[in-house]
Amino acid sequence: MSQRKIAVLTDLDPSSSPGANLVALEYAKCAAKEFRVEFWSGRNKISNSPLRTQDAKLGFETYNYGRRFHAFPKKSLKKKTLREIFSLLPLLWIVHKTLVFRPNIVWVHQIGNVFPLSALLIFRILKIPAVFTVHDFGILVPRKLYPEDLSVDNDDLMSLAYSLPVSKEMLILRQNTLGRLYLIRLCIIRILVKSTIIVSISEMQKRILEANNFLVTETIENGVNPCGCKPDSTSRLQAILFAGRLNGKGLNHAIELVEKNKELMLHLAGNHELLTVALEKLPKERVFYYGMVPQSELFKLLHKVTFTSVMSDCFDVYPSLLLESMVHGSVPICYPTVGNAALAKGVHDSLVVEFGTTPDSSTLSKLIEDSKLSKRAIDFGKKLKSFEEVYAKYSNLFDGV
Ligand SMILES: [Zn+2]
Predict the structure, then answer these.
(1) How many distinct helices (H) and strands (E) make up the chain?
(2) Which of 314, 309, 300, 320 is closest to 364 using CA atoms?
(3) 39: CA distance to ligand 1 center in Å?
(4) Phi, psi (5° rounding) for residue 147?
(5) Which residues are paired to 36 by β-bridges?
(6) CA 136 to CA 20: how far, in whole Å?
(7) Under CATH, to which class is 237-383 assigned?
(8) Orientation of helix 387-400 relative to helix 20-31, angle to 10°
C-alpha cells in the first residue's frame, strides 16, 4: 500500500511569522513520521526561504503574496472581509497544488490572511477531507464581538465563557451596516466550513465557537517541546519579558507593572515599535531590547528573566508563550481571558490577575521574593505534553477520516 499523503496549510512562513505557523510546522514534523507531508504556506516576496533545509522529510511549497488581507487599511474593511472569504490567486495556487500532490487529507491551520476560507470549499469539491485546527477563533467569529462587551469581572473562566451567548453586542450588530456585514460574513463562513472537521485548541475557544453555532469535533490543546537549552547561568534577573507584536498582546500592562515596582526591569523581544512605546513611559536604563529573535534565542531569554508577560488585551486562545515560559522556568503572569490561564494558576494563584489590571505592589513583591516560584513553573512545565504526544490525538483523528 502506498504511503498516505497529508498537506499542511498555513498562512505564513513560520521563520518570518512564528506563533500558529510555527505550531503548524512542529505538527507537520510529527506527521512526517507516518505520512508523506507537504507544508504549504504563504511567503512574503522579500523574505528568503530557510524552511526548505530544515527537515528533509518535509516538502515545502510557498505561495508568494503581495499583501496580507489584514494589512489593508481600515477603510477597506469590506475588501478585507471579502478577501478573507474569497481571493482568486491564492485559491488557484491551492487548486494547482492539490491536483499535483493529491493529498489524502488537508490539515488546515491559520488561514484568512493569505489564503481565503473558500479553500475549504475547494477541498470539499475535490472530495478531500479537511481537518481545521483553529488557532484564532477570529477567523470564524468576528473578533469585534469580543471582548469589549464582556464583563470580565471574575476569574472563573467557565462562567465567563458561558456568558458569551447572551452577549449584547449581537443585538447592537444587527442595527448597523458594519454589524450586518459581520453577520452576513458569519453565515457565509458557516456554509464554507460545513463538513470540515474543526479542532479547537482550548476549552475557552470551543465555547466561543459553539456559542456561534460552529460544530467543534474535538479540543486538542497545543503541545510544547521540552527544554533543551544549556543556559549559561541559573540565576535570573528581576525582569519581566514581553515577547510578541505590539497589537493585542498588552505591552502597556507589562510597562505598568515595571512602573509599579522599582526593582523590575522590562525586557523586550520583537519589532522595534515595542521599544519606542516602552521608552515613552520608562527610562532607558530600565528597558532591555533584543530585537526580533529566533525561537532558540527566545528560549534562552526565558532562562534570564523571572517573569513573562502574557497579559493579552484580547481573548488569547492558547498562547505558546505561556507554555514556553513555564518549560524554560520563567513565571507567566496572565489574564483569565487567556485560554491556558489555568496552567499559570496551577503554579501560583496570584499569577492570573483581573483583566486589564496588573498585580498590586504587595502581591508583586511577594512574587519577586518567592525563590521557589521558578522551580514550580519548571515542574509544571515538565507535566505539559510535547508536540509528539499531542500529535497522537491528531493521528487518531486522521485514521477516522
Ligand atoms: Zn530552556
Answers:
(1) 16, 12
(2) 309
(3) 27
(4) -105, 5
(5) 5
(6) 9
(7) alpha beta
(8) 70
Look at the chain and count its residues.
401
pLDDT at residue 280 tops 60: yes
- Ligand 1 centroid to 265 CA: how many Å? 21
Query: What distance in Å separates the CA atoms of residue 387 and residue 225, rounded to the nearest whole number?
Result: 6
Q: What is the per-residue pLDDT across 306-352, written as a single tens digit (0 to 9) for each?
A: 999 999 988 889 999 999 999 999 999 999 889 999 999 999 999 99
Question: If you measure from the C-alpha of residue 225 to the centroid of ligand 1, how many angstroms do you get, rounded to a whole number?
Answer: 10
Give me the residue spans of the domains in the chain. 5-223+387-400, 237-383
Give distance in angstroms: CA of 129 to centre of ligand 1. Answer: 37
The alpha carbon of 237 and the centre of ligand 1 are apart by a number of angstroms equal to 15
Å from CA of 330 to ligand 1 middle:
10
pTM of the model as a whole = 0.90
The string of DSSP codes covering 60-97 is: EEEEEESS-GGGS-GGGHHHHHHHHH--HHHHHHHHHH
| Per-residue confidence band for 158, with pLDDT thresholds at 50, 70 and 90 | very low
Q: How many angstroms separate the CA atoms of 256 and 216, rounded?
A: 38
The CATH number of domain 5-223+387-400, selected from 3.40.50.10470, 3.10.129.10, 3.40.50.2000, 3.40.1190.10: 3.40.50.2000
